[in-house]
Amino acid sequence: MFEKVEILFNGGSVVKVSTVKQELPEAPEKSEPKEEEQAEKDEVPVYLATARFLKECHEHLMSRKTEGLHSVSGIRYNGLYTLDRLEPLDLDESSPTYAKSNLCSTMKVLTNMHRHGELLTGMFHSHPWVGRSAVQPSSTDINNQKKHEDAGYRNVSAVFSRDGWVRFFTAGIPFRIKIEGKGIERVTENLFRLTETEDL
Ligand SMILES: [Zn+2]
Predict the structure, then answer these.
(1) What is the pLDDT at residue 42?
(2) Domain 35-194, what fold?
(3) What are the structural domain ranges in the chain?
(4) Of 66-80, 89-103, 154-168, which range is least confident?
(5) Rg of the chain taking only CA atoms, in angstroms
(6) 48 C-alpha to center of ligand 1: Å?
(7) Burial 71-80 (b: 16+ CB within 10 A, else e)
(8) What distance in angstroms lies between residue 7's CA and the mean position of ligand 1's atoms?
(9) How many A from CA of 46 to the centre of ligand 1?
(10) How far, in Å, is the centroid of ligand 1 from the Cα of 98?
(11) 67 CA to middle of ligand 1, Å?
C-alpha cells in the first residue's frame, strides 16, 4: 500500500489537501450506488452547529479589532455535516475590510483535519461592524467560497458582526443550516442573531 498527499493551490492559497491510498492489487471497481445512497446524495445537505459553538467563534473572531478569519472542521454523518471545531488560522493580513490567511498555517490545518478523518465544513470570518447589513457577504467572499467549491470542498461560509449577527452562505452548493441550543434566534433561513453576545 502506498499513500500520496496531493495539495492543490489556487490563487496563492491552499484549497485542497487530499491523501490517496491504494491497495495492491487494485481494489475492484466500485459497484453502482445503492438506492438509499443515491437518495442521500440528492438531499440538500444540512450543516449542524450548536449556539454555544457559534458564540465561541464570535468571541474568537472579535478578539481582533480588524477582520478575523478561521476554518471549521467536522464530519459527515447521514447527510449531515457538523460544524464542530474551531480551527484558528494565522493571518498574513488583516484590515477592517480584508483578511488573508497564512499559506503554511492553512496547509497545516487542512493536513491535520485530513489526518484525523475530518472535513473542512466551514470558513467563518468577521466584518467588524454592527447591524444586520454588516454580515452581507462581499463579492470577494463569494469568490473565495467559489474557489473552495470548485476544488471539491463542501463547506459553508459565514460572516459574523460585532453585535452577534451571523449569516451563512455558499456560492452555489445547496445547503440548510440547523442550530441547536440556547442563545440564538433565527431571523431568516440563513440569518441568525446571537442573543447573549456582548457587543465586543
Ligand atoms: Zn467578508
Answers:
(1) 64
(2) Cytidine Deaminase; domain 2 (3.40.140)
(3) 35-194
(4) 89-103
(5) 18
(6) 22
(7) bbbbeeeeee
(8) 25
(9) 23
(10) 7
(11) 8
The dihedrals phi and psi of 18, each to the nearest 5 degrees, come to -135, 150
Q: What is the pLDDT of residues 33-81, one digit of tens each?
A: 555 555 456 689 999 999 999 999 999 999 999 999 999 999 999 889 9
Secondary structure, 3-state, the chain: CEEEEEEEEECCEEEEEEEEEECCCCCCCCCCCCHHHHHHHHCCCEEEEEHHHHHHHHHHHCCCCCCCEEEEEECEECCEEECCEEEECCEEEEECCEEEECHHHHHHHHHHHHHCCCEEEEEEEEECCCCHHHHCCCHHHHHHHHHHHHCCCCCEEEEEECCCEEEEECCCCCCEEEEECCCEEEEECCEEEECCCCCC
Question: What residues form DSSP beta bridges with 46?
Answer: 80, 176
Q: Which pLDDT does position 95 carry in this prediction?
A: 87
Q: What's the gap in Å between 121 CA and the centre of ligand 1?
A: 18
Q: What's the gap in Å between 126 CA and the centre of ligand 1?
A: 7
Question: In angstroms, what is the span from residue 30 Cα to ligand 1's centroid?
Answer: 41
Confidence tier at 120 by pLDDT (50, 70, 90) = very high
CA–centroid distance, residue 106 to ligand 1 (Å) = 18
Q: Is the pLDDT of residue 7 over 80?
A: no
Pick from 172, 178, 86: nearest CA to 125: 86
